[in-house]
Design brief:
The protein is mainly α. It is about 55% helix and about 5% strand.
């Protein structure tokens, strides 16, 4: 269930990645729940950047992708598609 960070990012469409980037921006004029959601997304992305690889079966990975769907950044059902797609040989870390 381990894949490279790039392989994980490539499981998202370009449009989904753009939505995540926009959603992670802090808007000081927004209410605190919106700002907290943006901060949670930035924290999740920072964790990904610090990782050596992504384990699709880890609880925090599952929760992070499901959070994206719950926030409306992924279409319904996309979290499972991203997490449950078979790992291909080129996605595996060396």
């Amino acid at each position: 269930t381990r894949i490279t960070k790039l392989a994980f990012r490539n499981r998202f469409t370009a449009a989904e990645k753009v939505m995540m980037e926009i959603a992670s921006l802090d808007n000081p004029a927004a209410d605190m729940p919106a700002r907290a959601q943006a901060a949670a997304l930035r924290a999740n992305q920072a964790d990904l950047a610090a990782a050596t690889f992504v384990d699709l079966a880890r609880p925090d990975t599952l929760a992070g992708v499901q959070m994206l769907e719950a926030a409306g950044l992924l279409s319904p059902g996309r979290a499972l598609e991203i997490l449950d797609a078979p790992v291909t040989p080129e996605e595996r870390p060396l």
